[in-house]
Design goal:
Residues 228-254 are annotated as: Disordered. This is Lactate utilization protein. Residues 122-225 form the LUD domain. By secondary structure, the chain is of the alpha/beta class. It has two domains: 3-33, no CATH class; 46-229, Rossmann fold. 26% of the residues lie in helices and 21% in strands. The strands form four sheets. It has a six-stranded parallel beta sheet with strand order 1-12-7-4-2-3, sandwiched between helices. A four-stranded mixed beta sheet has the order 8-5-6-9. It has a two-stranded antiparallel ribbon with strand order 10-11.
């Protein structure tokens, strides 16, 4: 059924024709402006505190986070995590350019396979589009370079997320998606599927007993790349380069 057929059926049910021009213009303006509702104050924080809130909320929901300085540190961090959890070194990986460019050869035992996940996969590595501090959620839109199956099938889901992509509120993550995503076929801003992941899968439907991995991954581990100097904890920001002193050794710049 086409869009016009669906709208026509709705109009017949409401017993009216198309909207008058003034009402149509008002609704189109509202859709284009994306007006804000109330945004929780808990996410209105300085950048270091915003990232700290994201991490705290992830951990509150049974996820884990490890901060790494750059993408080159991902192989060592992932290898250590897999070893600590007694997991295999082979994993399905999103065919995203950032992940494909990681120097995996620095850890030869790791066996990344750039593809969508299969039911037999124990570990998946996904590329995180955005994080939301107010709930500790990941925003994972579907795309050829971000297969949705990586979010669902593997028992252990690992996500690489840049600190610069952590936002305070959901509205800001939606803004980023609209700004960066354009569907090549339709020209629209929305992908076919968007998943919000808050911790590993869990359920307490049976006798109110919490069971992890009920209908998805039982582990969620985030490798957080510290690419945003403004988001580093106090005291961890890079010091200014030494300033040269004529006739003497370099001293820290003032």
């Amino acid at each position: 059924m086409t869009k016009e057929a669906i709208l026509g059926a709705i109009r017949r049910g409401l017993k009216r024709g198309p909207l008058p021009a003034d009402q149509r213009a008002m609704l189109e303006g509202r859709l284009a402006s994306h007006p804000r509702h109330l945004i929780p104050a808990r996410s209105r924080l300085p950048r270091p505190d915003q990232v700290a809130l994201f991490i705290a909320n992830v951990e509150k929901e049974f996820g884990t986070v490890e901060r790494v300085p750059d993408l080159d540190a991902i192989p060592a961090a992932l290898a250590d995590y897999l070893a600590a959890q007694n997991l295999p070194t082979g994993f399905a990986m999103a065919p995203h350019p950032e992940l494909l460019g990681i120097p995996w050869s620095s850890r030869p035992l790791l066996q990344p396979a750039a593809r969508r996940a299969e039911a037999s996969d124990q570990v998946s590595l996904q590329h995180g589009f955005a994080g939301i501090a107010e709930t500790g959620s990941l925003m994972l839109p579907s795309a050829p370079e971000r297969p949705t199956t990586l979010n669902l099938l593997a028992d252990t889901a690992v996500v690489v997320l840049r600190a610069s992509r952590i936002h305070g509120a959901y509205e800001e993550a939606w803004d980023r998606l609209r700004a960066e995503h354009r569907d090549q076929r339709t020209g629209g801003a929305m992908p076919r599927n968007i998943m919000f992941v808050t911790g590993p899968s869990r359920s307490a439907d049976i006798e109110q007993t919490l069971e992890l991995g009920a209908h998805g991954p039982r582990r969620l581990h985030i490798l957080l790349v510290d690419d945003d100097p403004a988001a580093l904890p106090p005291g961890e920001a890079e010091a200014p380069p030494p300033a040269a002193v004529p006739g003497g050794p370099a001293v820290p710049g003032d």
